[in-house]
């Protein structure tokens, strides 16, 4: 391990000596190249930061929307239950209609929740990939 590190140190020292022995115009060229690389990395980092913030905001917005949708569905379910209780004694013919309304409401809730969960998962995956790119840069 120590020999490997010593070898790497010697390689780095060799690179430094090469840089010192280079003519000034080559040093300037190397400096400009390094500055350009740094600027590109900073730009990529800034872009990643903006995308991450955007995804975070969108995720929070979708979570709020999901919560409000779930709340609305609960409210509608309570209203439906109250309506069923009131009309329970009126007629047996209305039961299938009310049952189909309840099934429709439940299916709509599940579809909305599933699509929002899917979207949240996609955003989380994209967020994870952006974080990996940021870490790589």
From TrEMBL:
Specify the superkingdom: Eukaryota
**Feature: compositional bias, Basic and acidic residues:** 1-14
Asked if Methyltransferase is a keyword of the record, the answer is no
Supply the alphabetized keyword list.
Coiled coil
Single Gene Ontology BP term? cellular response to lipopolysaccharide
Q: Does the keyword Coiled coil apply?
A: yes
Gene Ontology CC terms, in alphabetical order: cytoplasm
Q: Please list where the region (Disordered) is annotated.
A: 1-24
Q: Which PANTHER family match?
A: TNFAIP3-INTERACTING PROTEIN 2, TNFAIP3-INTERACTING PROTEIN COILED COIL FAMILY MEMBER
Name of the featured protein: TNIP2 protein
Gene responsible for this protein: Tnip2
């Amino acid at each position: 391990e120590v020999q490997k590190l010593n070898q790497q140190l010697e390689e780095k020292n060799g690179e430094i000596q090469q840089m010192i022995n280079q003519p000034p115009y080559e040093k300037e060229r190397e400096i400009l190249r390094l500055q350009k690389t740094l600027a590109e990395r900073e730009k990529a980092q800034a872009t990643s930061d903006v995308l991450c913030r955007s995804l975070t905001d969108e995720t929070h917005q979708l979570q709020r929307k999901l919560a409000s949708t779930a709340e609305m569905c609960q409210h509608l379910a309570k209203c439906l239950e109250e309506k069923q209780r009131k009309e329970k004694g009126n007629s047996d013919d209305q039961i299938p209609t009310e049952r189909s309304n309840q099934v429709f409401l439940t299916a709509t809730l599940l579809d909305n929740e599933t699509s929002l969960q899917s979207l949240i998962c996609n955003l989380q995956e994209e967020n994870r990939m952006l974080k990996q790119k940021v870490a790589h840069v």
